[in-house]
């Protein structure tokens, strides 16, 4: 399989191309300057291409680097869209869930987890009914309840 740079490495390269300074790019990426330098050198070595010309006072993006940065920006943008789409699905999950629980279980278990469920899925409504375990099981079987604990 051919070498594939990581998303983090793509972020480093895009930042360096934008800021034209290793120290500033490292700071923007919240890493040390040596970490950023090593990762960029690793990409260049594995791809056998020079992305940046390093002179004593200046940093220049090579033509190959410009093409790489343009593609890296597209990849990172696409990844951002994927993440946004996935998080929108979680936010839009909604409807009614009918939950049955035994009185010896629900009052102790549900208060611990329901706040997290409600914050993650604000459009989800949960109907809770406490009953004897045999009744909960029967109601799940006949579809009166969606699930039972």
UniProtKB/TrEMBL annotation:
Gene3D superfamilies: Periplasmic binding protein-like II, Winged helix-like DNA-binding domain superfamily/Winged helix DNA-binding domain. Residues 5-62 form the HTH lysR-type domain. InterPro entries: LysR_HTH_N (IPR000847), LysR_subst-bd (IPR005119), WH-like_DNA-bd_sf (IPR036388), WH_DNA-bd_sf (IPR036390). Pfam families: HTH_1, LysR_substrate. GO terms for cellular component: protein-DNA complex. Keywords: Activator, DNA-binding, Transcription, Transcription regulation. GO terms for molecular function: DNA binding; DNA-binding transcription factor activity. Belongs to the LysR transcriptional regulatory family. PANTHER family: HYDROGEN PEROXIDE-INDUCIBLE GENES ACTIVATOR, TRANSCRIPTIONAL DUAL REGULATOR HCAR-RELATED. This is LysR substrate binding domain-containing protein.
